[in-house]
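Example record for the data management plan.
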Amino acid sequence: MIRYVPNTLTVFRLLSLPVFVWLYGMQGPGFAWKAAVFMWLATWSDAADGYIARKYNAESEFGRILDPIVDRVFFLTVFGAYIWYGTMPWWAVAPVLARDVFLALFTLIAYGKAEEKPRVMRIGKIANFTLFWAIGFFMIAVRPVAWVLYVAGGALYLYSAALYVVRWARERRATPLQTAG
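Corresponding structural encoding:
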């Protein structure tokens, strides 16, 4: 039964987005504590699904693909609400969203029909977690903490994109050597 928990948490996070938008719309852009708490619970569910999947050997191909997609949809939705309600300027959100668009296109092109799919890197998960906390602090109007976390998380986020591309290039370069020997 435990093997279904990680994917259930991921699907819960996806299905919770309309509730988040509703809560933030009711309270935002000021002190939106209900939306922040709700979003932080979703953040912990993201950490929990990965932990449970690894600890109980409940990893699945479906979850490995769905989890990063849900993270991207979550960011897109939250940042869309932030821009809509004036919580953050578009130029602050643009690098994070551009990274997501770039990696989505890169993944489709680089791994499109390949049997092997990209693996999530720990630094990407840390960047996600940091950005989710920054987002929550923006919601409760603790801007100094929010900006520090956002800049740190955003830098890690962009750095992780570069690492994904470098890892892919190294793996592609190493593949012919392994098959020739």
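Summary line stored alongside the record: The radius of gyration is 17 Å.
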